[in-house]
Design a protein that fits this description.
The protein is mostly helical and 87 residues long. The protein is built from four helices and no strands.
Length: 87
């Protein structure tokens, strides 16, 4: 963001690199459903580990993903995040 674009005149450099957490978030919330299933599952499972999800959430997301129900994956991930923020 250019300094001229905000009242505080603060220059913010663009972040052009995604962290592993950024990538994990995207893999969980926007999973590929086409491609090598073993690779897709390995990426999905690794992402859940990166996000440090609890066992109940991992089980729920896995079940939703196995059923091909992406909205359920997103819903259950949001529930986890809301619960974690409330603590």
């Amino acid at each position: 963001m250019l300094a001229a674009s905000n009242e505080e005149k603060v220059e913010i450099s663009p972040n052009l690199e995604l962290s592993e957490t950024d990538k994990a978030f995207m893999r969980v919330n926007y999973p590929y459903i086409v491609g090598n299933k073993q690779v897709l599952w390995a990426n999905f499972e690794a992402s859940m580990k990166t996000l440090n999800l609890d066992a109940a959430t991992v089980a729920s997301l896995t079940k939703q993903r196995e059923n091909g129900y992406v909205p359920g994956v997103r819903r259950d991930y949001v529930k986890y995040v809301e619960k974690a923020r409330a603590l």
